[in-house]
From TrEMBL, chain A:
Record's signal peptide: none
A Pfam family reported for this protein in Swiss-Prot or TrEMBL: Amino_oxidase
InterPro entries in UniProt: Amino_oxidase, FAD/NAD-bd_sf
GO molecular function, one term: oxidoreductase activity
Amine oxidase domain mapped to chain residues: 15-521
Function according to Swiss-Prot or TrEMBL: Probable oxidoreductase that may play a role as regulator of mitochondrial function.
Protein name per Swiss-Prot or TrEMBL: Pyridine nucleotide-disulfide oxidoreductase domain-containing protein 2
Domain of life according to the entry: Bacteria
Subunit structure, as described in the record: Interacts with COX5B; this interaction may contribute to localize PYROXD2 to the inner face of the inner mitochondrial membrane.
Automatic annotation (TrEMBL), chain B:
Transmembrane segments: none
The protein's role, per its UniProt record: Probable oxidoreductase that may play a role as regulator of mitochondrial function.
Domain Amine oxidase: residue ranges: 215-347
GO molecular function: oxidoreductase activity
Top-rank taxon: Bacteria
Subunit structure of this chain's protein: Interacts with COX5B; this interaction may contribute to localize PYROXD2 to the inner face of the inner mitochondrial membrane.
Coiled-coil features, chain-numbered ranges: none
Official protein name in the record: Pyridine nucleotide-disulfide oxidoreductase domain-containing protein 2
UniProt-listed PANTHER family: PHYTOENE DEHYDROGENASE, PYRIDINE NUCLEOTIDE-DISULFIDE OXIDOREDUCTASE DOMAIN-CONTAINING PROTEIN 2
Automatic annotation (TrEMBL), chain C:
High-level lineage: Bacteria, Pseudomonadati, Pseudomonadota, Alphaproteobacteria, Hyphomicrobiales
Name this protein carries in UniProt: Aminomethyltransferase
Organism: Rhizobium subbaraonis
Residue ranges occupied by any GCVT N-terminal domain in the UniProt entry: 59-296
InterPro entries, A to Z: GcvT/YgfZ/DmdA, GcvT/YgfZ_C, GcvT_C, GCVT_N, TrmE/GcvT-like
Keyword match Electron transport: no
Amino acid sequence: MQRYDVLVVGGGHNGLVTAGYLQRAGLKVAVLEKNGWVGGAATSRELTPGFLYSNCSYVCSLFRPEIMRDLELPRHGLQVVAYEGGAVLTRDGDYLASYRDHDSHRREFARYSKRDAEAYERYARDVTRQCRFIQPLLMRTAPDPFGFRPRDIAELVYLAKKFGEFSPSEMAETLRFWTMSISDFLDEYFETDVIKAYLAISGIIGTALGPMSPGTAYVLLHHYMGEVDGSVGAWGYARGGMGAVTQALASSFLAAGGTIRTDAAVAKIFSRGGRTTGVVLESGEEIRANLVVSNADVKRTFLKLVDEADLPEHFVHRVKHFKMRGSSGKVNIALDSLPEFPALPKGSSCIRGDLHFTDSIERMERAYDDWKAGRWSADPMLDAMIPTTLDPTMTSPGKHFMSCFVQYCPPKVQGRDWTDADRAAFAETVIGQIADYSPGFRDRIVHMEVRTPRELEAEVGLTEGNIFQGELTFDQLLFNRPVPGYAQYRSPIAGLYICGSSTHPGGGVMGAPGRNAAMEILRDLKRSPETMSNAHDVI
Amino acid sequence: MTSSDAPAKSSTTSATAYDAIVIGAGHNGLAAAAKLGRSGRRVLVLEAANAPGGAARGREFAPGFRSAGLPHLINRLDPEVARDLGLSLSATPGHAMPTAVLDGMNEPAVLRGAYGETIDGVSAEEAAAFGRLRDKLAFQAGILKRFLRRPPPQLGAIGIGDVSTLMAAGFGLIRKGRAEGRDFLRMLLMNVADVAEEYLDDDRLKGLLSFDATLGIHLGPRSPTSLLGLYYRLTGEVDGKSGGQFIPDGGMAAVAPAFLKAAEGAGVIIRCGARVGRILADRGSTRGVVLADGSELTAPVVVSAIHPQATFLHLVDPAETGTGFLRAIRHVRTAGNVAKLDLALSRMPNFTGLTGRDHAGRIVIARSMAHVEEAFNPAKYGEFSQDPVMEIVLPSLADASLAPDGACTLSALVQYAPYRLRQGWETGKPAFLKIVLDILERHAPGIGRTVVAADLSTPVDIEAEYNLPGGHWHHGELQADQLLINRPTGAASGYATPIEGLYLASAGAHPGGGISGLAGWNAARHILAGGSR
Amino acid sequence: MNALTKPLNATEARRAARNHILTPRLETPFHPRLAALDVVNDWYNWAGYKAPHSIFDEELEYFAIRSTAALFDISPMVKYRIKGYDAERYLNRLTLRDVRKLAVNRIHYTAWCDDHGHVLDDGTLFRLGEQDFRLCCQERHLPWLLDSAFGFDVEIFEETEEIAGLALQGPTSHAVLAEAGFAGTERLKPFDIATFPHDGGPGCSAVTISRTGFTGDLGYELFVPRAAALSLWDRLWAAGAEHGIRAIGYSALNRTRIEAGFIVANADFVTAEGALRADRVRLPDEIGLDWLVDPDKPSFNGRRAILDARRNQSLKHILVGLEIEGNIAAEHAIVYHRGKREVGLVTAATWSPTAKRNIAIASLERPYGTKFVDDLWVEIYAMRELKYQKMMKRAKVVPRPFVKLARRTATPPGLR
């Protein structure tokens, strides 16, 4: 029987990051993946001949450059191309575009309101200030305020000092920012609804919240704190689809001597006397190891893979009540030609960026009301992209792949399971919305993949289809994520760690949870993490 | 809008000088005045209306029928304030009002004692679960309470008092062990729905928690941070127990006189019908006020116990405050959501399933969390609830003078009724009134035939009647981003304002609304302590 | 509230503006003339406009300013128009100086701050009428100006695109105006404004001329509606032929403004709305604008914070003029005290051909620059053929302006 130092359960991006770091630190690591491919929610899959789909996550910005560097991902094929902007198409036949060029951006906003165009500067400055505060937290383990260990206290002092760099009025602003709704926050800067609608999208993507829910201003940061090669806040396409991220991670891991086993679904994680001893696969095969790291979400890990009897009752209770309500769906479309959007100016760069069709906060919030009532949104909020406009590797020339992220989409339909008919009806709301702005759109469709939370759970393993492996509300952030007292990647079982987005700092293809988990494991093994470069400074 | 500075007419300048002028004789204004007066200061209170009491000012809404004002019960009166000012407001001991939750299908769930020490109409297990949740929330509210009785910490100038409050709060947390401490930090900003869902099964109890957490706040039970509203309620106490409510002896009409008595007893002079037209300010300091009639009254200290927006947008020359400050004041979210219904009834109504005695309690119509949430949804878009939730009290049961013999008054706080109604309240009001009366009819069959008069005050009416911008009871949303150092806004969060000598003392200041007296009392203590910014 | 940020038919105007994306860089109304004269093709982005760093030769352009007459296109300068019953009171609250003392047809240099007294920008305020003002500045401030208008009876609108501006600077600048037939300009004293007839086509019969500039020299600034821009240029150009008129770019102008000791927002200080870092903002006293603050006038934004900082002596920085030994410009060099302790940064520097001195503007941490003005050193890294030549040069604090020219203020002005 093969023996490994570390077993990583699940080959998502965070699992591969942890595996990569640990293997490079000299441990013998195996990644066990239930699917026939690795990648988790960052995959490129050829679901119809000639078309690669980024069929879960679809854009890249948050992935930490420190990890790309440490694991030599560019050498293993990762290349991220920043994209050019985007647009909201409005019901009156006009649009609001966003451009990378500062002056064009301002003049575009000025079409709607000169005041808003200039207010955007202050808005961007204020949000950037908040990003600067949050960024240093990403690549650090959250301190436990009730841990009373020297390290926790030192970390708390560090954070207090960081916060102390703000002026009193900025501190007051930060407290407001963290608890406001994105809608209220935007109201303080802008008067034009379509501008607010465009900016609000980043406050709600992936969350089970509407733009009027308190806390969504903070979520904005989760979409702004990324970068593409130093261009903070920029988003890009991974060349070859989002699978390129995990393929590079896998390749780097293999090159370092790691083992990846696909079609190797873990059935149970064993423990004896409060220590993990290894796993058993669904095939019945047992693999022993002293360390097991779960990339699965916290519910899947502790409610399905671990025997409840091995865990403290309070812990299990908290895991059961960890909120993971899925809120989004995905429609992936193969197109035989580039769709036309007559409202957009000819040759506009907008089509190479993100496209939206929700021109008011109210429509967004009403879409959320549908979700609260257990329905998919009748008038959904789309975040649509055509990455093939910048990435020729995903299809043959002239053909295109369109990724439509759809909000909102409930994990259950009014309490019952999804049916195929439901799924078709859900897809129709998406196609119908696009077709309203793009004549002939339906005729261009070659193939389509529709994913509701049901499919996300079944294939990717995301409980309830929650793309962040747990909602990003205050009760589930920092030292509360996923369970207070267990927010430092360790679990109640010695030798068992978790490294997925259920942990701090949460979801998005960021890799930070995976790296932080690796750091804690190396710390426990008393190994110096010399393969880990320091987190980049925020200066 | 303020017109350009006209030179004050010296002929109208009053020679009488005061140490402090308090604007507004609401309960906070009177509390502030009383506290200042008791320290020997010469204090003048100026009230625009013809009678003191602010929102607790009574009025006749139909011939022979009186309403005691907006609040129809007390749940947050601070005992220390009451003791310090000698307020004679108390309930007969042991007579905390029960709360009956009606869902129109089952028998009512009736919570007795302070917030459901015993509960009728639910299973013993459910009552026990409710008890566990109540105890946890009351413990956490107890931690927060420490921060209500003192000015919010001023960042950048954290004082010894702030540190000791923080440390006391920290020790209070640890006292119950790490797990409780962690739970506190986890739950603080949660929504009430997820918390209720974790502990409870009964839809009525969950509906009640949802209702109590969101009453008067523009949030639904599923909105993050909505638990704060419940904490806020639980910081209130009756007979030393948190979460109770009562109507004082003599009814709610006794509230305004009690504060008035405390103020007058402290030597405070109160002038009603004296509307302040302008707060005098020159290069950043105040020296008094000018009344609407043009007369000038001077004092080194002016305490504004009216809404912060009414203060800074209407009474202070905008040139005297900074652009950023005024921008923040204008951004204070203060659009009310609650309508107040006063009904004159020819006889006492009979709510289905409720004993006669429990009619003297608080009656809440909230079937479930979903009911509250769905009532909230339309309010986001400037529409009123088609199926609103409400809290009902029969005031004439506690104060017979409110209605003719044999007749009865009913007071209901109904939400959600948004201030900015898209269709406008002119046509909206009759439509909403009909909805509310239909609901009452469902729960108290026959009540419709006994209605002598119905008076619905929408937030727009409340704004006009009580000079409350947005018709908001709390003088601004009680949400996380408008609390503590951000209430009403950073630069005026410690009662002092950017204008030297001008202080805020209304519910728009820390710690917010409800008849607690704390905002006024804290402000006065801050002034007496030196009143620095 | 004024709501003039929206045109009358918003939808139509909005649709018409879609094509802005075809010209991501705007051209100023004078662009055809600049482009025709331009030989070096050295353009930069000035507030969204294509503007020349240099037209033909930076060095010679400098001497055009100081020896003959130079035309510099100031159209991209952000211009706001403020009108109405409360305009004076509004501006008095907004800005640091006492606007009541600003007479009609006069201009003053001023600055404005946020509530914390941190400078948002500096600029020039034109009083065109009793209730009619123009504010010219470097950065955009429409939201701040509109928010400041709460409670005031004023109208505010931006007129950057509508109004073309031209600076005519140099010792023969008045001769050019006289030659062009602008009779009476000799009576203009510094900071005076007057209008003069100009046939600029339909809708334009006059040009507004002020005796102002950014060079510390004799000079004027001329404003006309956009449509009249080229006719104005041509009139000046023709008149200037015998007076050595040249078109210049920003590089030359920048050297003269340093000589004159003028500061530039987001070059010599970071504007309060632009600063990401809390310690980068500046009070007026920290950037040499203390003389603008008028504590005796009615309340204005930032008053309390500024006076508190003065009283509590909590001012942290000071902007000073430095004279540095040698002749190597010390741009962005670190300033040391006794050659060891780091005390500040040079924000702008040049060799002054007129003063024949190596001059600089520097931001120092107090008490350096106030109490300690001697024994200052500047560390200059001069890149010479792929090698830094590192120099530690002695510097001393000197009063600004570095260059003071009698002709700047002489009225009537000379003709050469």
